[in-house]
Design brief:
This protein is mainly beta and 248 residues long. The protein has a single domain, classed as 7 Propeller (Methylamine Dehydrogenase, Chain H). The protein contains one helix and 15 strands. Strands 1-2-3-4 form a four-stranded antiparallel β-sheet, with no helix packed on it. A four-stranded antiparallel β-sheet has the order 5-6-7-8, with no helix packed on it. The longest helix has 14 residues, at 12-25. The protein starts with 11 loop residues before the first helix and ends with a strand.
């Protein structure tokens, strides 16, 4: 039984093209009968939370699988059957909150960085950053290695924002360290950090570089070359609005 089914043989690229052509060539007054549809499928009901979901080819079969963080688990649902496998059970304080995929140790197998110990209004302690190493089989639990601690750790991505030819792990916490409710969390800035992957990520320290420390209460970020200068930028949504951080 297939859990993940294509949309009537139509790719998402073709679907986008179809919608665009329809909008341009059919008068708004004419009724339009779609040639495609979305079906809702429940693929799991055991999760306690699901703060982060991503698509990644966990087992190297060239098909995207679904990866989900649960309160103290990380699971992946195999394409196309949605059979569940556990990447991690325990080992972190609840809740797991964010995840990013990359071959961290360069062995050809996909690994993950994971943020945990999620306590959104505790700005003085808590918040752990670690990475999960895939061993000989993606169907067995991954190994866990610590990276750092960061109160209110919230979003992470892998990208070469420093232009060094190898991705760094970019972390954007929700709030600044020691920010207070009384000051509406404005009395300490969010520290946006890039961690360099060391030569031996299991044993060596992950050196960090601060990309920005001027924003407050940053809820999410996106990495792209926004100004078309050939270098990646970090677009952050914070109290200040949408702000562009351009690492140099």
């Amino acid at each position: 039984m297939q859990c993940l089914r294509p949309l009537a043989g139509t790719s998402f690229v073709a679907l986008t093209f179809l919608v665009t052509i329809t909008r341009k060539t059919i008068a708004p007054a004419e009724p339009v009968t779609p040639t495609w549809r979305f079906d809702m499928q429940e693929i799991d009901h055991t999760l306690k939370i699901g703060y982060a979901v991503l698509l990644a080819d966990v087992n190297g079969d060239k098909r995207p699988d679904i990866v989900v963080v649960d309160t103290q688990r990380v699971i992946w649902l195999q394409n196309p059957t949605c059979k569940m496998h556990e990447i991690l059970r325990g080992g972190t304080k609840p809740d797991n909150v964010c995840i990013a995929a990359y071959d961290i140790d360069g062995d050809g197998r996909l690994d993950f960085a994971l943020g945990a110990d999620w306590r959104p209004f505790e700005t003085r302690s808590g918040g752990t950053l670690q990475w999960l190493r895939q061993t000989d089989s993606p169907y067995q639990p991954f190994e866990l290695y610590p990276i750092d601690t960061e109160p209110t750790i919230h979003r992470i991505r892998f990208a070469d924002v420093l232009g060094e030819g190898k991705p760094q792990l970019v972390s954007v916490p929700l709030m600044g360290r020691h920010a207070t409710r009384e000051k509406n969390w404005m009395d300490a800035p969010v520290r946006i950090t890039a961690y360099r992957i060391p030569k031996d990520p299991r044993h060596d320290r992950w050196l960090q570089e601060t990309l920005d420390s001027s924003l407050h209460v940053a809820h999410n970020f996106h990495i792209t070359d926004l100004d078309n200068d050939g270098r990646l930028d970090v677009l952050v949504a914070s109290y200040e609005g949408g702000k562009l951080v351009a690492p140099r």
